């Protein structure tokens, strides 16, 4: 869901009907099939460029908006180690945004245009960040499980076809390993701490469980599929596959601490597939379309940052310089 | 070596670093542009790291409690930070000017401490010299660029400088045991520091095309070094210690 | 021109206008006094140019391209690059070059490089004389 490749029925129809130069298209698809990367200067189908911009852009937006729920607790982190780790972690999210906007920029859309689309509601970001970080334990849960989910997504996408995105993702995956460790560390301290700490952690897990299931997008059986996106290695795994991978890696790590998930049906079946209760996909739709607890706040804060910072960027902008698309 | 004089110096340095680092960390995620967000955030982490290192010296060598306890469980009246660092982040012009003024004072202070008779401080000064160099380099670059950007940015920088100066001069408020520090060759004193700082800051401000504000002595904001703080410190500490206070027995 | 007094001086007018302030769990968001409800659409037009960043992790090693930063001067580009690309691991130094100053071949011209690997006469592995030496030595013994 981070790099959102969920498409509508209309989009699927349109993708299949766009005419592209057949010779160039064949060479392009052969290159991808050989496992080679597409680089910024290459010819590419219009739809490929469009879908990639959308995916990378949404990923970038997710990073900078994602910095906000955890940022809530920076000023309240309870000791030096946690304080420094949390500032560094949130800083990384901004850094990842920076890397991803730059990757998307190589496809021809400027960072400013992407930020404008975010603030005007045209572009989306990962739905999970429309939920609030209510307690310190939420920081631990986000740091461990939300980052864990993001890593599943990122590792898969790093095998995609577009060079700049893959390179950005490799760097990001490396930094995420720190996030995961410090998140897990935090979770373990809470789980093995006082009664109050344990209760705080359990409460946070209870609240984040459904949003985590929503993270990878709707079940495959209800999603629109695009063979084209798979062929072009833009979408590399199904929502259900990624969700299953996530549950497989992380549910045991929570259970081993004696913490539970609020779902009696959560279990691995005989085919090694994780089963769980329906997580209410109507809620997912409502929240992603604007009706979540924090949608308004997230955009308002980003708008504030944009407006309050405008005088700085205006002052720094060189009027005589012509902007060119970055290289790689 | 007079332990009380040393404690006084170390506490005020550590408290300054902790509080300004805490303030600057409030910008993480809402800075005026992504790259600058990253830079400011790193500098906030550096400052908090310096505070931790100084509290560690207080703990290991001078018998004070552990850094976490000193930072998160001390009452407001025992803090020795200057009021300048307590002020809210305001808009970016204020935060940048505060960074510029404070970081130059810190840079010179550590330069003076590199030759201190108190070894732990001399060693720390040498170790973090590079970090502080980046902070002043960053401040100088942004000050110059914004002072010369356009009319609005120039006016904002000047206005923020005018507002900040009476507070900034409060950095150099002398502790009661100042003379001990000087006679023991731990530190050459706030007056010496202030003189060097004024020279340095004036030259950069003027070369950026701004005017150095003139502040009458009776307008300088003192009090922090003696435990008298602005209205902003207590809410800051309440917030900083909020989670710790929910469960003082807990390990986090 | 916006009021250049410190931010916290400008709050009374908000009460006058009875604009509702967004309630948030985040204390720093609370301090921003954001208005809730509809706000005007945003137009961003402040472009800063991009600089390609090259990173050297150790003395003696090559500089490697790692990405871009947006900045308006070489000094600023270096300062931004330090934190964007040098905040972890080792860094010995960084180069920044304006994107508009970097030149490359077009993708279509990649074919110029296609036959290079075949030019084995440039390749040390192409030169094998062991067999020839042994044959000669055998002959000498006869």
Q: What is the element layout, followed by pairings?
A:
The complex is a heterotrimer of chains A (328), B (252) and C (142).
Chain A: H1 9-17, H2 22-33, H3 46-71, H4 80-105, H5 111-119, H6 136-157, H7 163-191, H8 195-214, H9 227-231, H10 239-255, E1 267-268, E2 274-275, H11 281-291, H12 295-308, H13 310-316
Helix pairs in contact in A: 3-4, 4-7, 6-7, 6-8, 6-10, 7-8
Chain B: H1 3-25, H2 34-62, H3 67-72, H4 92-113, H5 119-147, H6 151-168, H7 178-183, H8 190-207, H9 233-240, H10 242-246
Chain C: H1 12-17, H2 27-32, E1 50-56, E2 64-70, H3 74-85, E3 93-98, H4 130-141
Antiparallel strand pairs in C: 1-2, 1-3
How is this structure best summarized?
The complex is a heterotrimer of chains A (328), B (252) and C (142). By secondary structure, chain A is mainly alpha-helical. Chain A has helices at residues 9-17, 22-33, 46-71, 80-105, 111-119, 136-157, 163-191, 195-214, 227-231, 239-255, 281-291, 295-308, 310-316; strands at residues 267-268, 274-275.
Describe the protein.
The complex is a heterotrimer of chains A (328), B (252) and C (142). Chain A has helices at 9-17, 22-33, 46-71, 80-105, 111-119, 136-157, 163-191, 195-214, 227-231, 239-255, 281-291, 295-308, 310-316; strands spanning 267-268, 274-275. Chain A is mostly helical and 328 residues long. Chain A is built from 13 helices and 2 strands, in the order H-H-H-H-H-H-H-H-H-H-E-E-H-H-H. Chain A has a two-stranded antiparallel ribbon with strand order 1-2. Chain A has a single domain, classed as Ferritin, core subunit, four-helix bundle (Ferritin), CATH 1.20.1260.10. Chain B is mainly α and 252 residues long. Chain B has a single domain (3-246), classed as Ferritin. Chain B is built from 10 helices and no strands. Among the domains of chain C are: 8-38, no CATH class; 50-101, Ubiquitin-like (UB roll), CATH 3.10.20. Helices cover 25% and strands 14% of the residues of chain C. Chain C contains 4 helices and 3 strands. Chain C has a 3-stranded antiparallel β-sheet with strand order 2-1-3. The radius of gyration of chain C is 31 Å and the shape is elongated. Chain C starts with 11 loop residues before the first helix and ends with a helix. In chain C, 21% of the residues are buried. Mean pLDDT of chain C is 81; it is low at 1-19. Chains in contact: A-B, A-C, B-C. At the A-C interface, helix 4, helix 5, helix 7, helix 12 and helix 13 of A face helix 2 and strand 2 of C.
